[in-house]
Prior knowledge:
alpha+beta; Pnp Oxidase, Chain A; seven-stranded antiparallel beta sheet; two-stranded antiparallel sheet; 9 strands; 26% helix; globular
Amino acid sequence: MGILNAANNALQGVSNLTQGALGGTLAQPNVNLFGTNIPGVPLVSFRNNFIRSMETWVGALPLRTQWVVLFDSFPVGLNTDILQALEPVQGDKKGFDIDRAKAFLTSYPAQGIVGCIFAQGADIPDDTIQSPVASITNNRGFIPGRISGNRSEFSPLTLQFRETNSSFIDSVIRPWVILGGHAGMVARDTNNKPELSPKSNITVVQYTRSYQGVSQIPRKVWNFYNCVPFSVGSRNLTYDAESVQTDTTQWNYSHYTVSDNLYLPLPDLIDKLF
Length: 274
C-alpha cells in the first residue's frame, strides 16, 4: 500500500496547491487505481479549458482558405524576343508572343493587391531526414540506437492556378518552364545579363481572422528562394459539363524559411482598437 499512499498524497498535495491558486474545483470524483479508491480532485475542467483556449488568438483554429501567393519578380528574359529566339517559330511569328499577356498578368492589379489572383491551391512541401539504426556487429540483446542520417532532398513546391481567358498558366508559367530549361539553374550574377536568370522568390502567406472590421492578420509566412518552375500539367478539353479548370505546376527552389508573427502582441493590439 506504500505506493498507493504516495500517489494519494501527491494528488492531494497538488489539489491543495491548485485550490489555493484557483480558488476551488469543479468536481470531486474518486479515481480507482488497482481496485483501490483514491480520492482525486480534478484541477480544472478539461472541456472548459479546451474551449476557453480556442477563444484566444493563439489557440483559435485558422481557415485553410485564407492564404495568398506572392512572386517577388518575374524573369527579365520572359519576353517574346527571347522565347521566339529559343523556340522554333514559323510564319508570322505569332507563336510565343507573350508580351501583351505578360504585361497584364504580371501587373500590380493581378499580382500585388491580394497576391496572385490566379492562384487556386498550394501544397507546402515536407521536410525529412533519414533516421537509420546504428549497425553494430553482434549486438546480442542490446537495443540498437537510432542515428541521424542524410537530409532528404526537398520535395517540389506545388502551385495550382485557375485558368482564365488570358491564361496565366500558358502565357507566363509555361514560357517560364521553357526559359528555365534553356537557361539552367546554375548560380548567376543577376547584374550581368539578368535575362539569363530564370529564378525568382515566392512567398506564401497564411492569414487568420482578427476582429470584425479589422483586416486579417498574417499568421505564417513561407519564403521559397530561387524558384524555377519545371513542370506544367497537361490540358483536358472535353464536351462534358463545365467546371473550374485548375492547372498544376511544380517548382524547384534552393532553400526555404517559415516565420510567424508571435513576436507581436496581437491580442493587445486588437483590444486597443476597440
